[in-house]
């Protein structure tokens, strides 16, 4: 599976962005999909995941502001980010794995990574 992330950019605090992750090579509906953020000098962190059935899991820091969704017909996963904060700044990576919904909270359970897309939120 090849994952291509897009949609990052430079925005101001309070703005919104929507990230997209398009897959090729295999259909996404057999995987749990997720998004991770890596801030400069820090480890990659779990942000959100969506299971095969559409159930979702979010990090506490983004709960209520971010929404993950998937369009299996388009083989694409989205991350709608609202009320962005400067601490949301980082490179965002989409990822997928064969485990259950919460499996992607562990980096070791990720089977596929996309390339990152930069999100910068200015104050």
Question: What's a concise summary of this model?
Answer:
This protein has strands at 2-6, 9-12, 17-24, 32-38, 44-50, 56-58, 66-71, 76-81, 90-97, 112-113, 117-122. By secondary structure, it is mostly beta strands.
Structural overview:
The protein is mainly beta. It contains no helices and 11 strands. Strands 2, 4, 5, 6, 9, 10 and 11 form a 7-stranded mixed β-sheet that branches. The chain has a 4-stranded antiparallel β-sheet with strand order 1-3-8-7, with no helix packed on it. Strand 7 and strand 8 form a beta hairpin. The protein is globular and about 40 Å long. 34% of the residues are buried. The mean pLDDT is 95.
Key features of this structure:
123 residues, 0% helix, 7-stranded mixed beta sheet, globular, mainly beta, 4-stranded antiparallel beta sheet
């Amino acid at each position: 599976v090849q994952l291509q992330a897009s949609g990052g950019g430079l925005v101001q605090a309070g703005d919104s962005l929507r990230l997209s992750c398009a897959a090729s090579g295999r259909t996404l509906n057999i995987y749990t999909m997720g998004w991770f953020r890596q801030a400069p000098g820090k480890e990659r962190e779990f942000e959100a995941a969506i299971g095969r059935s559409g159930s979702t899991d979010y990090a506490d820091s983004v709960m209520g502001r971010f929404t993950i969704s998937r369009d299996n017909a388009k083989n694409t996963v989205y991350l709608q980010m609202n009320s962005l904060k400067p601490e949301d700044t980082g490179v965002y990576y989409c990822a997928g794995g064969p485990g259950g919904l919460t499996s992607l909270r562990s980096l070791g359970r990720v089977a596929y990574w996309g390339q990152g897309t930069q999100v910068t939120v200015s104050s």
